[in-house]
Design brief:
The structure holds two protein chains of two kinds.
Chain A (H helix, E strand, L loop, with lengths): L10 H5 L17 H10 L5 H40 L6 H10 L3 H8 L11 H50 L2 H6 L2 H43 L1 H8 L1 H39 L1 H6 L3 H53 L5 H42 L21 E11 L2 E11 L4 E5 L6 H8 L7 E6 L2 E2 L5 H6 L1 E4 L10 H5 L8 H10 L2 H5 L19 H15 L3 E5 L7 H15 L3 E5 L11 E6 L2 E6 L1 H7 L2 H8 L20
Parallel strand pairs in A: 3-8, 3-9, 6-7, 7-8
Antiparallel strand pairs in A: 1-2, 1-4, 4-5, 9-10
Chain B lengths: L1 H9 L3 H33 L4 H50 L2 H7 L1 H26 L1 H16 L4 H45 L1 H6 L3 H53 L5 H43 L21 E8 L9 E8 L4 E5 L6 H6 L9 E6 L2 E2 L5 H6 L1 E4 L8 E2 H5 L8 H10 L3 H6 L7 E2 L8 H14 L4 E5 L7 H14 L4 E5 L3 H4 L4 E6 L2 E6 L1 H7 L1 H10 L2 H4 L1
Parallel strand pairs in B: 3-10, 3-11, 6-9, 9-10
Antiparallel strand pairs in B: 1-2, 1-4, 4-5, 7-8, 11-12
The chains are: A alpha/beta, B alpha/beta.
Amino acid sequence: MSESKSNQPNPPQRGHRGPGAMMQGPAEKAQNFLPSVKRLLKNFRNEVKSLITVLILGIVSVALSVTGPKILGEGTNIIFAGFMSNQVPPGMTKQDVIDMLIAQGNLDQAEMLKAMDFVPGEGIDFQRLGIVILTVLTIYLVSALAGWLQARILNVVIQRSMHQMRLEVEDKIHRLPLSYFDKVQRGELLSRVTNDVDNIGQTMQQSMSQVLASLLTVIGVLGMMFWISPLLAVIALVTIPLTLVITVIIAKRSQKLFAAQWKATGVLNARVEETFSGHSIVKVFGHQKEVEANFETENEEVYRASFGAQFLSGIIMPAMMFVGNLVYVAIAVVGGIQVAGGLMSIGDVQAFIQYSRQFTQPLSQLGSMANLLQSGVASAERVFELLDEPDESSDPDNPAKVSENASKLAFEDVSFRYEADKPLIESLNLEVNPGSTVAIVGPTGAGKTTLVNLVMRFYDVTSGKITLDGTDIREMSRDDLRSRTGMVLQDTWLFAGTIRENIAYGRPDATEEEIVAAATAAYVDRFVHALPDGYDTMLDDEATNLSAGERQLVTIARAFLADPRILILDEATSSVDTRTELLIQRAMVRLREDRTSFVIAHRLSTIRDADTIVVMESGSIVEQGNHEELLGNKGAYFNLYNAQFEAPIEDETPTETISIPTV
Amino acid sequence: MLGKLLVRFLKSKWALIIAIIVFQTGQSIAALWLPTLNADIIDDGVVVGDIAYIWSTGGIMLLISLAQVICSVIAVYFGARLAMGFGRDLRASLFNKVVSYSQQEIGQFGAPSLITRNTNDVQQVQMLVQMTATMMISAPIMATGGVIMAIRQDVGLSWLMAVAMPLLLIVVAAIAIRLVPSFTKMQKRIDRVNQVLREQLSGIRVVRAFVREREEKTRFFKASGDVMEMGVVTGNLMALMFPVVMLVMNVSTVAIIWFGGFQVDSGDAQIGTLFAFLSYMMQILMSVMMATFMFIMIPRAAVSAKRIGEALETEPSVTSPAKPVALPATTSGKIEFENVSFTYPGAEDAVLHNLTFTVNPGETTAIIGSTGSGKTTLIGLVPRLFDATEGRVLIDGVDARDYDPNDLWQRIGLIPQRAFLFSGTVASNLRYGGENATDEDLWRALKIAQAEDFVKQMPGELDAEISQGGTNVSGGQRQRLSIARALVKDPEILIFDDSFSALDLRTDAALRAAINKKLPHTTRLVVAQRVSTIQNADQIIVLEHGRIVGVGKHEDLLETNETYREIVESQLSAEEAA
């Protein structure tokens, strides 16, 4: 069955995949089909017993249901024989009737009757028919039971394995180095861990049961057909290449069209998304007509492509039906002639017709399964790729012990680069005394956030070292280091849960009093009481029921409760209203008390009282000192400081700019 | 709503529908004819031994098969045209409707929801139409035809159909009814798993900083376990479906043979007709099953149809006047608010209360106030993103609602809070402001917007790619490009809705200076959070809970207005503010 296309290196393994191998679509092709399938199946290594049970039950179910028509055919034979016996004059023996027919020159009919088991005039033998009927009923019942059990067990196995796989993927997330998350697009990663894993599950569920059933049915039916009549079986077999040719031709073309359909739909959906998201721009910039015209063109393209795809793929069913009918006619004619010639019983013809119907359906099912399998394996490959990413470097075997209250941090000649040829931080030296506040200022991209990443060991320094009370932080375990360090970031991450749970995030065992104390210190307590459910208010996915400023306060409360020795604060700027902002600043000042703090400042007014202000520009410290010292220096800090109040530094003569001082 | 939608968008396609029905009927007749001919082969050919008859009848069967496949293919052709055309028309009319909306309706539904309605929901309904065209139409024809033919065979077994058909219907429906809610539940649990994963990915730094990996794993284990549990329930129902359907069909077959035997014995039926009856029975049962499955799709499509219908039936609140006023010969960009109030439909309280103020041409008016004070709504009234519910907004002395909206928009440059860029290039985004702008015009605008430097560093400069939503440039860059886009338009009125928030202080200051210098005659309306951004404005309006609580210059307000002072003090120390 693989002459035409799949002459790839390892034909033996490919053989059993039947027509599937021919249906590989261009759209979502697995890179290494077989190795990936093998690896996917490894997920089931703990389920061998269940899978064997499934296989046995499957075989029993299919074998029984396949014998059904053949036995039922006996029933038909009994009826036919009884019917014929009623046609002949009573009192004659079977031999008399045959002799009579031969005498009449009706040789064919004589042959047919010769092969038949009947007593003239007796009519239908209902006792024998009854036994046949009961047998068949039992067979069908047992087959249904076995099939049901098999599907149930298989379902549980698949659900369990998918659960395992999801856990494996999730576990990997926590082991990957942070650089991985900065490297890949979040949407793309999210799609891998959600859509792809879902897709694998669905593929597994649909394909495993159906492939097994279809495969067994094809084999069983084929066997029965050859048993009944090799001649008719050969006729029926003609359908296989015919079915293949038809599905391959149609599927190949329709897959191209499907790809075009998805592409066009993608373009159209992007247009819709863009237009609706930027609605006010579209309107005020007067682009309504243009957008509508573009949409119409793209919509027409979707129509054209999807019409083609739907039409072509819709043809497969009638085409297969036609092939099925061809076989039906052929069997009816050839079988009829055989029965008339006494070479075959009528019951067998009837059984054969039923078999031929059961034969084409699983064949085409296997075909469509191949497509599904392709997309599932492609998903699996993307997930495997994720699982194969190297883990974060492991913690030292004997992590250094550092005293509980250690809070003196030092940067010693620290350099860092994400990419080998792009230095981000160059030989930075900085000493932070216990309990002091270091403010870091500088333009976007100066490396402020990178500094935080290094302290938290989200990244490790490229050279030099960072020490905590003299111990290189790389010699500590990450968990130890991080549990001493609190963090409030601009990106206020809260999870879907209650406000209480979010505050207690850093210390799940905190008491109610501690939570309320932290919330009060961070001004969360004030607005919590205005919420319908107080601390039990559920935050939704994007926490839209809290304003940006309130979310920030919750993250501060979270840090309060965690009570770290070292603190990293990234000041929020945008979209927080001024009053909440005031609260945030007060809360942050309070949080900083008695802790070693790093503040990434966006507004200079808030950091005047910092012990050390570090001005960064493109990866290195250009100035360092307290507010007064730096102002006196009249350097970078001085310029920055003035920039926020005046309309300054334009490349041309400043006199003109004074006329209308501000926007 | 589903019915209404179908009628509205399928009305014009009646010819296609008739064609589909005709060819599906033809196809069904052919399919139903074959078993009769097969019966003839047995009764008149095999039993009598007439081989010539067997051959000729076989030939006729072939021809009918051919006719059937031709009818089917034509029906599929028309069906695809019907369904895809339906989807296209529905999509287009929804899209055009939403484009005609004002900001108010967009806000009411939310842009993401409208996007889903225009894409997924349309797809759902389209799928229903497609399935109907290919299967739903043929199933009842097949079933009815099957019944007629079976009765015509007159084997005295018609009562068997009366038992088997409802039995199958009940069995399939009973399972399907349980399946639908469990699918919904399953989807919810999958959503939960995805939610936890999404949270873990977006909060990966926080998770690690607080050393919460173990708890996160527990949380995920539970979510994933819930999916498994529901998957077992759903899967077990599905596992029941196939064996049960097969059992009903097989038992029907057995019953026909058994009871048919008596009919044959008594001479009431012939062997061949028994065969034919058997075939019909199978065809009928298959049709019944297909139809039942179809019905599972309807509730889902109905939900989608309802969502689409809601959007289609919403009328834009901002419309063009019947007789627009022509632009005055000389325009200066003067804006006057006269007793303007605004209330969102259905809301009890007004967002803006009785606002009156004037923005003089060439001057800067700043609006400051806490979140929810109505700043964004206020400035939206100028370009008619909303219309005032009371009072008027005059532009150059004419009610904004009396202008042709296009004339009005022509004169306004809007820089929204969330800088939104379209997919394309830097140039194509900037030319949104003016198609005919030369490259020099674009560079001039970029220079004022402080975007010249980074655009020069982008590969391809003006031709650098911008991905959808502008996600490949930083927030600050996006904001500057959005400002440049408005500048390319060379408008009389510039509206900044908190458009400096993502800029660092130095860029913010440089930008303000450049705009002042290069565009001295443009009227500027500025919403800002940072006091430093607006403290030199010609006029500052302090807004609180939708009311003006102070108007004046920075120094005056600082002395006389408590709200303003509070805001300033939160940002600048007293000495700096003075």
